[in-house]
Amino acid sequence: MKKLLSGLLLFSLCLSLASCGKKETPFSPAQDAAALLDAPGAFSSPLTQIDQSTACVLYGIDEGTVTESAVYGSTTGAEELAIFAFSSEEDAQAAQAQLQYRVEDRTEELRDYLPSELPKLEQALVQIRGSSVLLVVAADQGPVNDFLEG
What we know:
The protein has helices spanning 2-18, 29-38, 52-59, 89-113, 118-122, 141-149; strands at 48-50, 66-73, 80-86, 125-129, 132-137.
């Protein structure tokens, strides 16, 4: 199962790289997080804000490379939202890998503890835009996709 999940994450990474042909505006952590948190139905319960230092430790990201962040997590399930802006695209790529590891780790952690949360993790989205990266584990990916396409 872990190989399947890793394969799906690799496929997701390839798709995100394929879409890099067009120049996209980097994520704006505070603004984009507010829009996603307000997206009707995206999250099944309110998320709690996590300060940048704690978030960097949680995700294994070097805080010295982060220029701005907006990170929120659920206290009762798998849902989370993390948007980081970095000083370089290379730092964003390194963080993207860390966020994908986070999804894999959470999947293993919750497999026996909260199996009802696994579908959210299976649909987790990690996307990079320039020197920024986004992680969304939502109850409903529809509003997230609408945000990303809009």
